[in-house]
Amino acid sequence: MVDINKRNLLGMPLVAALGLGVAGAASAAAQTDGECKPAPAPDYQLPIAPGPFKPTAASLETYQAPDWFRNAKFGIWAHWGPQAVPRQGDWYARFMYVPGHPDYDHHLKTYGHPSQFGYKDIIPLWTAEKFDPEALMDKYVAAGAKYFVSMGVHHDNFDLWNSKTHRWNAVAMGPKRDVVGEWARAARKRGLRFGVSEHLGASHNWWYPSHLYDQFWPKLGVNYDGADPKYADLYHHNTDEPYKGDAATWYTTDPAYHQMWFNRIHDLVDSYKPDLLYSDGGIPFGVVGRSLVAHLYNQSVEAGRVQAVYNCKALGSGEFYPDACVQDVERGVLKGINPLPWQTDTSNGDWFYSDNFTYKTAPEVIHMLTDIVSKNGNLLLNVVLYADGSLPPESQTLLDELAAWMKVNAEAIHDTRPWVIYGEGPTEAAGGAFHEGDDYTPQDIRFTTKGSDLYAITLGEASGRVSIAALGRKAGHEKRAVRSVHLLGADKPLKFRQTDAALQIDLPASLPTRHSSAFKISFKA
User: Fold this and answer.
1) Is the separation of the CB atoms in 408 and 487 below 8 Å?
2) Euclidean distance between CA atoms 178 and 284, whole angstroms
3) pLDDT at 430
4) I want to staple 162 with a disulfide (CB 3.0 to 4.6 A). Which of 171, 415, 429, 470 is the partner?
């Protein structure tokens, strides 16, 4: 693979080649007679709605997640946009400019060289001709979703709403529809909370390869279209600040970009009043990001309580304060019961549709959801869409199977809270981002509570008898004796024995649902 940083040796200005960039050049110019003059602080314009929150860590750390989020447990995400068109998966807009990457090869064979046919030319191909948010939202509700999140803008810098400040948006080109607005109406009509995701913070450095060129014949030195000043508002002006795959370069240091980010996301928040805003990283850009979060929270206050959720991550550059936001863990979970609400985000396939990806099955999603809920978390699941807005067969099958399971077992998921322990069994999920795919067994059991009742959920299809060691009389987790055990979806209570070692439950010959069973356990006073 070509080293994208070689561009520095092939014709860039000396200051940039030395790694100083625009800010460094200004700092160097300020040095006279051995004296260094500090650069002036950026003159940001950061209007915030009136309310209790200020753009400081101390103020934001007084935040408490609203009950609607703690009760919802399961949300569905449409991580969708022009990058679905090539059917190659996530980050296509970046990797199509990286020789040696499969996406570059695909682009060359399918569309032509990126100096002549770039990402700007992919955008008109995204027409979303089969996009029916009303029909899709009915499927999401049936599958158990209590909130829905629309992509607002990905790293590709293309807004999916009627942007007031950016010409590269879905109303002006591509589908020529207000995708965010249509999703919002469909979700709220059905009583779902509505959220948006922004990945714009990292776009500046992420887009760096679009400014380069091939370093081999026959196109040696011919600029990709990202280097054309006519399209700088899509590809940015970045020629010296690449994302290098590390946290330090995820977000740019450019104050002008920070202000642009604030203006765009402020417009998104003001236009759609989302109940949830997701950032793909930590809180971006210091006071700029903190101001946006304070604005989101302040304008959502109802009867003295904040109703909005802000998701950010404890990875990548940016700020992270556990009490100031709801932590999001990408494609992974936390270990044990977290005292604060949190969220896993994952996808049933690649983040954008790919022809070459293995999809998650219904049991994988159900078991992951159950493990997360038992630990005080929520699951936000991207259900992959084709570029035209229709569901691939794998996504349709998943939604159908989730709907059948949730119709019977949602009582053990929604509106619940963790028990004294999250579960038992031979399988413990690895903690942290990008760790998923645990192979659970019917002996793995997770617990949730609602009122005085306890739910025990098997992470597999049990047969014959279920034994729950945590409810043995000598386990020490529950002082009350078991009074009754009901299998959700079954007509009659089940026979059971509570011994010193375990609660043993006799199962019926056939189970009400596939993949996983939920037992409602009541106790004597």
Assistant:
1) no
2) 26
3) 87
4) 171
Distance CA 268, CA 180 (A): 9
Task: Determine contact, residues 137/192, Cβ cutoff 8 Å.
Answer: yes
Long-range contacts of the stretch 114-117 (C-beta < 8 A, 24+): 114/210, 114/224, 114/225, 115/213, 115/219, 115/222, 115/223, 115/224, 115/225, 116/225, 117/225
**pLDDT at 35 (0 to 100):** 54
> Which residue blocks in 74-170 are alpha helix, DSSP H?
92-95, 102-110, 119-122, 133-142
User: Can you read off the two tokens belonging to residue 83?
Assistant: 């990058």
Q: Checking phi first, is residue 33 left (phi over 0); if not, alpha (psi -120 to 50) or beta?
A: left
pLDDT band at residue 41 under the 50/70/90 scheme? confident
**Percentage above 90 pLDDT, the chain:** 90
The H or E element containing residue 23 is helix 21-29
Mean of the pLDDT values across residues 439-458?
97
DSSP lists the bridge partners of residue 465 as 506
Confidence of residue 316 (pLDDT cuts 50, 70, 90): confident
At 48 the three-state DSSP class reads: coil
Cα–Cα distance measured from residue 199 to residue 316, given in angstroms and rounded to the nearest whole number: 12
pLDDT higher than threshold 80 for residue 401? yes
What's this model's pTM, rounded to 2 decimal places? 0.93
What are the angstrom distances between the C-alpha of 114 and each of 254, 271, 298, 409?
26, 35, 44, 50
Pick from 418, 404, 472, 474: which is nearest to 446 by CA?
418
